[in-house]
């Protein structure tokens, strides 16, 4: 069985939903994971913000606008009165439910419930559309099987057991439609797998049912060799190793959520990135295969802060790095890059929520300086250390860019630079010109 995930952009209008229906009907039985229609989760976040601020009128105004939009989608999606009616009932029930939260206390818990409505509506709409077209489609309720444990990590045994139960309830279905993103936590409360988490859902389901392939469908032709929004003449990369895809996803190639890679990698299930707008294009295949001696792609991640701790007193004496790391750990702040010398250590972080506390604690160990508005540029490919020449080529491309940190050797798959955000475009363009053109 294959698992196919369609993102918000792929189900963003009635017309797009019809295109998805064409792509998934026929052939073998499949599980289809859907995101909310594009923009919906953001709007639900906005509604929640009003409710946190105890502004029910503000919330209601947005709720009404969003509901009106959904009513138009329903009208456009279904051909028959019967299904238009069914669609309107779905929309009404979810929006009436959202409105109940405008009356009482609004906490993190209620927000999770509100955010879950986007995927619940989109899947119900597509499921009815398929049924109207005569396809044997059933809904597979994610809230019955997708669960996280006490550490907020997915619980693979629970997911595997419970999805099996749900599949067996409808053994004759041609297509199972389920919600991406949403889940229950260890206490049974509605929760989610973080923004963009539908990709993770697909990969967890793929692993749970031992799928032959996981397909992530979006609105662009696979992972590109550079950011197509910034650099011109980018081309899709046809094959990536799981580690390469993970690095690219983590360092800014938004087409795939980074969490999605690990479950598929361990289960050795290939992940294929495909384009809803050009369904016959080959897309990008992600697997455990490596293409020898090849630099594949470049990605960049903004909003990075570099912190340098400099000490004249035996900085790297044993135990020093542990003390530094413990400070970051105690503020739940993860480190992206790290570079050391005999007199100093530099790290980069992207979460600055506890920056001031971290700086205060670090100052016990030496002089601390920071650089903000930095950016990590990450070059990915078969960068095995025994290969020669590629570091020189990459550095050559960066020759005019001021570089704050360089990291290589952490994996066989990447070399990263920390530069100023304002130099990002120039760096990406130069890397493209020298490495790929
Ligand atoms: P979906 O709704 O399908 O999940 P998202 O909006 O979450 O889609 O993310 C996919 C979008 O990310 C694409 O439309 C693409 O334009 C954009 N994108 C961002 N960074 C990159 C990148 N480095 N390479 C390719 N696409 C990118
Ligand atoms: N709808 C959710 C979001 O916008 C999940 C997803 O699209 O993957 O974050
Ligand atoms: Mg997405």
Q: Which features would summarize this protein structure in a list?
A:
437 residues; 2 domains; VC0802-like; globular; 16 strands; eight-stranded mixed beta sheet; binds magnesium ion; Carbamate kinase; binds adenosine-5'-diphosphate; binds aspartic acid; 23% strand; alpha/beta
Mean pLDDT: 95
The structural class is alpha/beta
The name of the CATH topology of the largest domain is Carbamate kinase
Distinct compounds present: adenosine-5'-diphosphate, aspartic acid, magnesium ion
> In the CATH hierarchy, what is the architecture of the largest domain at level 2?
3-Layer(aba) Sandwich
The biggest sheet, with number of strands, parallel, antiparallel or mixed sense and barrel status, is: 8 strands, mixed
For the record, what CATH class of the largest domain applies? Answer: Alpha Beta
The CATH homologous superfamily of the largest domain corresponds to Acetylglutamate kinase-like
Assembly state (oligomeric):
single chain
Could you explain how this protein is built, in words?
The protein is of the alpha/beta class. It folds into two domains: 2-219, Carbamate kinase; 295-435, 2-Layer Sandwich (VC0802-like). It is built from 13 helices and 16 strands. It has helices at residues 14-24, 40-52, 56-77, 81-100, 108-132, 156-169, 198-208, 242-250, 261-267, 320-330, 355-362, 390-397, 424-436; strands spanning 2-6, 30-34, 137-140, 175-179, 182-184, 190-192, 213-218, 239-241, 271-275, 284-287, 295-310, 335-340, 344-349, 367-381, 403-408, 414-420. The chain has an eight-stranded mixed β-sheet, sandwiched between helices. A six-stranded antiparallel β-sheet has the order 12-13-11-14-16-15. A hairpin with a 5-residue loop joins strand 15 (403-408) and strand 16. Helix 6 crosses helix 7 and helix 8 (242-250) runs antiparallel to helix 9. The relative contact order is 0.10. The mean pLDDT is 95. The protein binds adenosine-5'-diphosphate, aspartic acid and magnesium ion (MG). Aspartic acid binds at residues 7-8, 35-36, 41, 118, 180-181, 195-198.
């Amino acid at each position: 069985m294959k698992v196919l995930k369609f993102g918000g952009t792929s189900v963003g209008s009635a017309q797009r939903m019809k295109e998805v229906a064409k792509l998934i009907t026929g052939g073998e039985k499949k599980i289809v994971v859907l995101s909310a229609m594009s923009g919906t989760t953001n709007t639900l976040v906005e509604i929640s913000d009003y409710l946190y601020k105890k502004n029910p009128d503000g919330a209601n105004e947005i709720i009404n606008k969003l509901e009106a939009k959904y009513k138009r989608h329903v009208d456009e999606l279904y051909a028959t009165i019967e299904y238009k009616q069914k669609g309107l009932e779905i929309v009404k029930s979810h929006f009436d439910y959202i409105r109940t939260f405008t009356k009482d206390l609004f906490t993190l818990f209620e927000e999770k419930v509100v955010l879950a409505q986007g995927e619940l509506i989109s899947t119900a709409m597509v499921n009815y559309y398929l049924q109207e077209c005569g396809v044997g489609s059933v809904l597979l309720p994610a809230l019955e099987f997708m669960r996280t444990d006490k550490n907020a990590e997915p619980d693979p045994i629970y997911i595997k057991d419970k999805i099996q139960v749900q599949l067996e309830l409808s053994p004759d279905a041609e297509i199972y439609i389920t919600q991406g993103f949403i889940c229950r936590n260890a206490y049974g409360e509605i929760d989610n797998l973080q923004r963009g988490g539908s990709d993770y859902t697909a990969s967890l389901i793929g692993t749970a049912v031992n799928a032959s392939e996981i397909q992530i469908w979006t609105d662009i032709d696979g992972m590109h060799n550079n950011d197509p929004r910034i650099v011109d003449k980018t081309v899709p990369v046809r094959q990536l190793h799981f580690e390469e895809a993970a690095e690219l996803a983590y360092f800014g190639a938004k087409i795939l959520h980074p969490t999605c890679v690990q479950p598929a990698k361990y289960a050795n299930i290939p992940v294929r990135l495909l384009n809803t707008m050009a369904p016959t294009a080959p897309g990008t295949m992600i697997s455990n295969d490596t293409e020898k001696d090849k630099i594949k792609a470049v990605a960049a991640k903004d909003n990075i802060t570099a912190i340098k701790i400099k000490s004249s007193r035996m900085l790297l004496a044993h135990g020093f790095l542990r003390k530094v790391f413990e400070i970051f750990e105690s503020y739940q702040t993860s480190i992206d890059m790290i570079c050391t010398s005999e007199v100093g250590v530099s790290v980069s972080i992207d979460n600055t929520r506890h920056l001031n506390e971290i700086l205060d604690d670090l100052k016990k160990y030496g002089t601390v300086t920071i650089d903000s508005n930095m950016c990590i540029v990450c070059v990915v490919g078969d960068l095995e250390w025994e290969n020669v020449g590629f570091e020189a080529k990459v550095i050559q491309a960066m020759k005019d860019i001021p570089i704050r940190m360089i990291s290589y050797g952490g994996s066989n798959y990447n070399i990263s630079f920390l530069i100023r955000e304002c130099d990002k475009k120039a760096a990406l363009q130069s890397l493209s010109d020298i490495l790929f053109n």
